[in-house]
Design brief:
This protein is an all-beta fold. It has strands spanning 15-18, 24-28, 35-40, 53-56, 68-76, 79-86, 98-104, 125-128, 134-145, 148-157, 163-173, 179-181.
Length: 183
């Protein structure tokens, strides 16, 4: 995948996902028009066709960046969950990044948050957000080890001058199926 000046998506932060039917999907994206996805040929690793699916975005004024990036999709129970990072990273202790998710019964969406707000319209239920010590909790991945789920992400430690840290937090699931992670 490559983005060009004429594209409204930024082809970074790719994540490969295989759905319950064995179809391969690549999600990616950062800023501009948000998170995108396309079917991938498992033999070649290339797109099967030119169709691009828009998964999530954060509407902003024309010409402004849409602060969403780093998609990560998982399957759990009857849903697909799309995790993403909102706001701004890479600013040390001044980072405002945090992780959200939405879910859908179809891998292609539409993904909605716990209130029913579409991720295409800025929705996203908070999974983890920074505190006084750790700022910028985002750019997540998901790890399942046995019966335990973990959120893997980075954060900036204010007690170490904003030094970046790799963090791994267990995920708890609410009774209605929403993930939560603690710092």
């Amino acid at each position: 995948m490559q983005s060009r000046k004429s594209d409204r998506f930024n082809a970074i932060d790719p994540n490969l996902f295989i759905d319950r039917k064995g179809k391969h999907w690549l999600s990616w994206g950062s800023f501009w028009d948000g998170l995108m996805m396309a079917r991938i040929d498992p033999r070649t690793g290339k797109r099967l066709d030119k169709k691009l699916l828009h998964l999530a975005g954060r509407p902003v004024a024309p010409g402004e960046p849409s602060p969403i990036e780093a998609p990560f999709i998982i399957s759990r129970a009857d849903y697909y969950y799309l995790f993403a990072s909102f706001d701004f990273c890479c600013r040390g202790a001044k980072s405002t990044y945090f992780t959200v998710c939405g879910r859908s019964r179809e891998v292609t969406g539409p993904y909605v948050d716990a209130t029913g707000r579409p991720m295409l319209k800025g929705g996203g239920s908070v999974v983890i957000q920074g505190n006084e010590r750790f700022k910028g909790t985002g750019h997540n991945a998901f790890l399942r080890e046995g019966e335990v789920d973990y959120l893997v992400y980075h954060a900036y430690d204010t007690e170490q001058g904003g030094k970046p840290n790799l963090r791994i937090s267990p995920i708890s699931w609410t009774p209605d199926g929403w993930p939560r992670a603690e710092l």
